Amino acid sequence: MENIKKHKLCIIVITLLCSIAIIMFLIWLYHYLRIKNARIEVVLKNNLTAEFTEERKVSDFIESINGNIIDDYVINTTSLGKKEIKFQFKNDQNIIVPYEYEIEVIDTVQPVVWLSNVYQVTKGSNINLTDKILCGDNQDNKPKCTVEGNYDLNTVGDYPLLFKAEDKSGNITEKQFILRVIEPSNTNAPRTTVEPTYTDFNQAKNQYKTDKTQIGIDVSGWQGEIDFEKIKNAGVEFIMIRVGGTRGTNGEYFVDKYFKRNIEEANKYGIKAGIYFYSYANSKASAMKDAKWVIKQIKDYDIDLPIAFDWEEWAYFNDYNLSFFGLTSMAESFLETIEDAGYEGMLYSSKSYLENIWLPTKYDIWLAHYTIQTNYQGKYKLWQLCENGKIDGIDGAVDINVMYE
What angle do CA 355, 107, 42 make, to 5 degrees? Predict the structure, then answer.
């Protein structure tokens, strides 16, 4: 009797499971046929190419569609070649259907050759022009650079030459220039002394201070021992302090000799403080290492303003084998690590490099442009307007900055 009950129970369970399976299959079949027979009317645009690192969304390549895209995501364009773009949209029958199309990521941007009309060297110099003259590309880590024409570094004169740069996508930049070989300077000749000119801090404050700006300075060991009471009374509203750097690429870290005093005095006198780090990073890993070192140095202090990444190895850029994308990604690795630790990140650079080398970034910009009124068209949080500022409390010159809300 007991066995009969168990047998009946097994039959019931099996029947129930089979019924569930059949129901699930019918549901799946219904949705399959519904999607298969759904009306799909998608017209793609004629141009299905995107530039390297260009911000393009799924919808940017669609001329018309009979519905609404569910996730109109930004396409990853950081590698060249063909890409399958897959997405879903809810059509005019209220059915969610999948769709895909193909685009090609291309690079049509010419390399950058950082060269004026005249390039001057001293007679007897032992330099390689293609190593020394900055030659870089947005995508190619090492564009092919050549110099066409004849010249003699051991003979004084002007040599008309052509500098040619070609990236792996076939984009070419050609720059004609004069190589000027000159005699070495006479070190025994008498030198004329030129009195330095200064930009008065009070004058800058009167000119640039508004209800939407603050006026401050940036300092390092070069400014020596600063009288913070005096600069506070002079109207300094914020200060960017160098924390330190490395002794060359992959060199040992050092703390700026006045960092500890500068940050402690800024905190003591209630002057809002930010930090900058002079980096020689050559990879994302080394930039992240830099950021972690900075975080350790500043963790015990009040940091109200961003931590700036300052990379200025332009004279040796060719040695780094970095594309402009690689350089920008490296900086962003530093800044992302900084922000993960709870601080704000910022990129420092001069106007020319921001316009020609750095790629657009989501991080705030600290613009260096020594002029009365900058014509930089990009967005920026800080503007370093001069390097010859004069203020009571600092012996010698100091950089003056404007911070915008």
Answer: 115
Q: What CATH number corresponds to the domain at position 177?
A: 2.60.40.10
Q: What are phi and psi of 159, to 5 degrees?
A: -120, 115
pTM equals 0.88
Q: Mind listing the pLDDT tens digit for each residue in 295-316?
A: 999 999 999 999 999 999 999 9
Whole-angstrom distance, CA of residue 151 vs CA of residue 124: 12
Q: Closest by alpha carbon to 324, among 105, 132, 53?
A: 53
Contacts of 312 (CB under 8 A, 6+ apart): 278, 349
Tell whether 167 and 315 lie within a shared domain: no
Residue % of the chain over a pLDDT of 90? 85
| Helix, coil or strand: residue 364 | strand
Cα–Cα dist 342/315, whole Å: 33
Q: In degrees, to the nearest 5, what angle opens at C-alpha 44 toward C-alphas 39 and 47?
A: 175
246 and 101 in one domain?
no
* Angstrom distance (rounded) from CA 99 to CA 111: 37
Task: Find the helix or strand (DSSP H, E) in which 263 lies.
Answer: helix 259-268
The answer on 214 and 173 residing in a single domain is: no
**Longest alpha-carbon distance in the chain:** 123
